[in-house]
Design brief:
- Among the domains are: 276 residues, Immunoglobulin-like, CATH 2.60.40; 174 residues, Rossmann fold, CATH 3.40.50.
- By secondary structure, it is α+β, with helices and mostly antiparallel strands.
- The strands form seven sheets. It has an eight-stranded mixed β-sheet.
- The radius of gyration is 27 Å and the shape is globular.
- Helix 4 packs antiparallel against helix 5.
């Protein structure tokens, strides 16, 4: 056949171009020149990495293999408190002395208070320092050739571990410990352990970024620390995680479930269960839920602690649902904001669409609704909210089914529009904004400010979608919007999770909640006030006291009048770590005040108070860091130090990257070329 030779040539040329393009995409890295007589050389500058790589090629053509990372998690859950030890193993398989920089997630409410650096059999305990002092010590130790580790907070749910002077073939373990409260919702107890930092959408114009920054996004005028929260991604990175849990629930459990992972459960005694998750890849969040037998479900958990002259009390109480939360007949105006950006592609978009359709079907003809779809821009279904009659609901469902995931995650203008779209009839309705998203944005502060400044009497509810939603964004927006948050991590959860959310949306909240102590008790509630309570939720409060009282009273306003309940306190029900939880929540509230200030003087005053509390309680915060230094130098002074970011796994349930797609096309064309050449050969 005369056309086989030209076809063969074309196929080879196209294959070469595609493979070159694929390789270029996968290794789009600009490297600094490797100096011969200096202490530090830098690999992988920010903005030059397209998809993250596990092998770095230096300017002299030498190859540096990515540091291996192994993670082990030990959880000890006692009642409603979870103590967690996270051990990260950094192994250097190269012939160079390296510094590992790893960005990792933790729960947004985690109180990080301990650091150990383990070198062989030696354990070096970390110390809490003001963040600038800690960074200075780290750089001094690194320059002196000492092994040193530094843990910093970038967001309440994003942290960075740096480990300097890891020798060729050497292994160093970094153990971090934190405390968190167990969540209670609809009689279900749960903890969540995030395993991956999602790909953040970074809006704004590029600004100056340090040349040795290791993120894959540049800092911008809207997200000034973007390079610190965007670690490189590699689909082939091996990031094994093993989790071991000792659960002492305080009651006989009816069920223990991990909805997204296969776990094994062993009963060690009547009230203790050992739960384990063997090595799994860190590509989606881990969640554990447990419930008591219905006749044993506790409606109150109360713990106390004495530390020095201070006393602490943690209360978690669930009011009787039938008595406090009766279904309301108040008409609602519901504004749905749905994320159809590229990060939602695949199962996340399917989950969000199904949740939205279920919510639309639940609306009554006396309600009104509207839908706002956003990606890089936003689109509104109706000019204003319209009655939820069947015809309009069918239109809304059709609109939902045709949503396609693409573009950037830019919800700011959609949120502003939703909160400002009231018309002359809106005052007749209870306005509820429902925000469905994976929350993969870096400009959280802008979104918080938009809700705070425009919420008025509306209520803002968030639904976290997908395998690794941004829990900091979800919980904080719901807090500012006096609403509630829900996670949907799998398509099979949509019906149950949305049903629980509907019970909150359709029942009036318990408001103006107070916890009253005897007159001689000085009580400092960490968050200042207690948020409105929705059906199925538990009142949660942590106090610092001058003494433990014998009783307290809970009160609040309901649709049926004032609810009040007196509770006796048993001081013998003591535990550890409540002081840490109090300090963590106190810092969280003070950070809200810090962000609200407009002058540097006011911010500096609040920063000093936050720093003082964090230092007193040995906590990592925005202004304090944990540092561990080995006093013995280990790196020879004439050896360069290679700095490298540790790539994270790609999130679960994602489609192939463009580079992978081009590589597959290239391989197909190559096979076609070989076939046509064989056909041509006589």
């Amino acid at each position: 056949m005369q056309y086989t030779k030209p076809l063969s040539i074309i196929a080879v040329l196209v294959t070469a171009m595609l493979l070159f393009y694929s390789n270029f995409i996968r290794a789009d890295i600009s490297f600094a020149q490797k100096p011969s007589q200096v202490q530090t050389s830098t690999v992988n500058p920010v903005n030059e990495v397209a998809s993250g790589a596990i092998i770095y090629t230096l300017s002299d053509k030498s190859v540096l293999t990515q540091i291996a990372l192994d993670t082990k998690v030990q959880m000890d859950i006692t009642g409603t408190i979870n103590r967690v030890k996270l051990t990260q193993t950094f192994t250097n398989p190269s012939n160079d002395w390296v510094e590992g920089v790893y960005v990792f997630p933790l729960p947004a409410d985690s109180a990080v208070d301990h650091l150990d650096m383990i070198i062989g059999k030696r354990i070096i305990e970390g110390q809490i320092k003001e963040f600038r002092a800690a960074k200075k010590l780290y750089n001094q130790a690194k320059k002196a050739g000492k092994k040193v580790s530094l843990v910093e907070q970038q967001r309440p749910n994003i942290f960075t571990t740096k480990v300097a002077n890891i020798g060729p073939g050497e292994t160093i373990k970094i153990a971090i410990e934190y405390q968190q409260a167990v969540r209670i919702d609809h009689d279900q107890f749960s903890i969540r352990f995030p395993m991956i930092v999602g790909e953040r959408y970074i809006p704004g114009k590029k600004i100056s970024t340090q040349p040795n920054a290791l993120g894959n996004k540049a800092n911008t005028h809207r997200v000034k620390d973007a390079s610190k929260i965007t670690p490189p991604t590699d689909a082939n990175a091996d990031r094994p995680v093993a989790i071991s849990i000792n659960l002492k629930a305080g009651f006989n459990t009816d069920s223990i479930v991990s909805p997204y992972h296969q776990i094994s459960i062993v009963e060690t005694d009547k009230l203790t269960k050992h739960i384990s998750l063997k090595n799994t890849q860190a590509n989606r969040d881990f969640e554990l839920t447990w419930q008591a037998h219905k006749t044993l479900t506790p409606d109150l958990a109360l713990f106390t602690q004495q530390k020095g002259d201070d006393h602490y009390l943690m209360l978690m109480a669930t009011p009787p649902a039938d008595e406090v939360f009766k279904q309301s007949h108040t008409p609602r105006e519901v504004i749905f904001i749905i994320d159809s950006s590229g990060s939602m592609m695949g199962s996340s978009m399917e989950q969000a669409t199904n949740a939205l359709i279920q919510a639309i079907n639940r609306l009554k003809p006396t309600d009104r609704f509207n839908i706002i779809d956003f990606d890089s821009d936003f689109e509104v279904l109706f000019d204003t909210a319209i009655p939820a009659i069947d015809m309009n609901k069918r239109h809304g469902i059709r609109f939902s089914k045709y949503l396609a995931a693409d573009g950037g995650t830019n919800p700011l203008e959609a949120i502003k529009f939703a909160l400002s779209s009231r018309d002359e009839d809106s005052h007749k309705y209870l306005r509820q904004i429902i925000f469905l998203t994976d929350g993969q944005v870096g400009n959280e502060k802008e979104l918080f400010r938009a809700v705070q400044q425009n919420i008025d009497d509306d209520r803002f509810f968030t639904i976290g979608i997908g395998s690794a939603p941004n829990d900091y964004l979800m919980t904080k927006m719901a807090e500012y919007g006096k609403g509630a948050f829900t996670y949907i991590g799998d398509i099979d959860e949509v019906e149950v999770k949305m049903g629980e959310l509907f019970s909150k949306l359709e029942s009036p909240a318990m408001t103006d909640i107070n916890i009253n102590f005897p007159i001689d008790i000085n009580a400092d509630q960490a968050l200042g006030t207690i948020a409105d309570l929705y059906k199925g939720e538990a009142i949660t409060a942590v106090y610092k006291l001058n003494a433990i009282p014998n009783k307290l009273t809970i009160s609040g306003n309901t649709a049926n009048g004032i609810f009040s309940k007196s509770i006796s306190i048993n001081a013998n029900n003591s535990t550890k770590g409540i002081d840490v939880l109090w300090a963590r929540k106190k810092i969280d509230k003070m950070m809200d005040q810090y962000q609200a200030q407009y002058t540097k003087i006011d911010r500096d005053l609040i920063q000093a108070d936050i720093t003082s509390i964090a230092l007193d309680h040995h906590l990592v915060s925005k202004f304090t860091s944990l540092i561990a230094v080995d006093v013995t130098p280990s790196k020879p002074g004439d050896k360069p130090l290679i700095i490298q970011a540790i790539a994270k796994k790609v999130k679960a349930a994602k489609t192939a990257t463009n580079s992978t797609l081009w590589l597959l096309i290239g391989l197909i064309m190559m096979l076609l070329a070989i076939f046509t050449r064989k056909r041509q050969t006589p």
